[in-house]
Amino acid sequence: MTGLPPPEIAVLPAPAPGPDSRGMISVSEVSKFFGSVVAVSDVSFSITAGVTALLGPNGAGKSTLFRMMCGLTPPSRGAVQVLGADPRTDRAVRGRLSLVPQQDALFDHLDALQMVTVSARGHGVNDPTAAAVTALAHVELGDVGSKPVGQFSKGMRQRVKVACALVNDPEVLILDEPLTGLDPVQRRNMIALFHRLGDEGRCVLVSSHVLDEVARLGSRLLVIAQGRLIASGDYHDLRGLMDDRPLRIRIGTSDPRRLASALVDQDLITALSLDATHVVVDTNDADAIGRRLAPLARDLNIRLTEVHPLDDDLESVFRYLVEGR
Questions:
Q1: pLDDT at 217
Q2: For residues 157 and 7, what is the distance between their CA atoms, to the nearest angstrom?
């Protein structure tokens, strides 16, 4: 986690103060050092109820940040608060949050009900078995019987880990790469579960390095690279903040050559390519293209069949933010 710092990207402004502005999770100027290695550097953000995705490449510092949020390791500098308390020193708040770790640490000789019941007992739940049954139903593992979890598939083991985190009915749920190993149906159902929990007023923070997963989780996004928080907000809004990055647009038309020539003449684009049915342009003024494209096509007596932005998506935003290109 060393090397050149990531590109400087404007972070979306914080929301106006309100009843939830303090945040269910608040991280203030937090850094974590392991000797000379900087794992997390000066990270600040605040999030409330609902689902938020933490996106970053492997080794970006996501797991270290999660461990500090759960009180498992202290920050070297700065402060973390969960539900208004320090999770490192406040035992009561630790009972109101749960972590699904990236590590696969299950007792392989136990069956699913026994494994989740052990977790419930560790949380001090009043009726551990009943809580385990409910949690397993949430992850659709209520009928797996007495098969040891050591014989489960990767996706089933992931779901057991999530069930273990649900037994204490947490207000804050932190999940570190929870969708790894799930098949497409399981992934869809798990994401739906996260959204149901968020809709109930819980704070659900999910990390991933897989762009497709993050796009499905929703638009509330934190982006971390090389231990630093480099952007936050809706990824469409983040793309709009990148004024120095031309927007790439594909335009379908009956006469690509005439349209391309007209766009160049009117100084609307910075680069282009074309084929038999499309013009692909780079522009620094997408609004001007939007206003003038239809009148231009009418004046040229040509048809438009498609106008589609090619890099207004999470993959492009992530590439711009993390790779600086």
A1: 84
A2: 37
